[in-house]
Write the structure tokens for this entry.
Amino acid sequence: MVTEVRHDDWPDEDVLIAGVELGGTKCICSLADASGDVRAQETVATTSPDETLAAIERILIGWQQSHAFERLGVASFGPVDLDAGSATWGYITATPKGGWIRTDVGRRLGAAVGVRPAFDTDVNSAALAEMRWGAGRGLKDFAYITVGTGVGVGLIVNGSPTRGFAHGELGHVRVARHPDDRFTGACPFHGDCVEGLASGSALNARLSGRAFADVTGEDPIWTAVAWTLAQLCHVIVCAAAPRRIAVGGGVVERQPHLIPVIEMMLRDSLAGYMPLPEGKLVISPGLGSRAGQLGPIALALDENLGRPPVRGF
């Protein structure tokens, strides 16, 4: 566990918000004010649900006792249950993460500190953070794509994350393959969906033993990755017409040259059919890797999102 405290002074009048970002390898707990200024932060390894959530509970209880935060946001890997009328609201439902299927996250963490939590996916929450403090400021229609171990999309339409019978899983859409791409795909559910073609896990499979350090920016492997992500952007533009699409995550952060290539391939793919906004449509996240950490803080700050009247709170 790693602890970082950025401030020694804690003004009594500050409204403090606790946020928890649950990831597949680590969970980041943050205590921040309404401006997104992080006052304290702790990292917990993602192991078993009981071990991980118990460690997070201890952190939150300590912060509640010392600083009495008023709001709590929880952003989780998924899929998760976001239906306020469901008995499993706040649960992780189906996931390839071993042992985490049907794990109560939202209710459990909220009950530990007696605060009704705002709960959503990690990518939706990161998109809200970008809209509040980063690349999506001033916009109501925005998309955030993260390309890491998997591929996730936070899609915000008219100011709110999209909702239906469940949250979207755009990283698992099937798209047109690059004509020269012969890779069969690595998604255990869908084979050659976007995640199966362009995620970090897919890249590991594509490299067949080669180390990432040996892959230069000119390697032809990036053509297939950029093409796949451009096709994902094509789907997003045609479905929701966001005014901006931020593409981040570990894979793209290490290969920033992909951003303009994705934009070029997207425009070629759309072939002038839709009038796009002026300027760049595909950009890097303004918050960089901090989008995920600030996501649950942004989620908790919005009274209209992720905070349904759930029994027990």
Residues 1-8 have pLDDT under 50 and may be disordered. The longest strand covers residues 26-33. The two ends are 30 Å apart (CA to CA). Residues 249 and 285 are 9 Å apart (CA to CA).
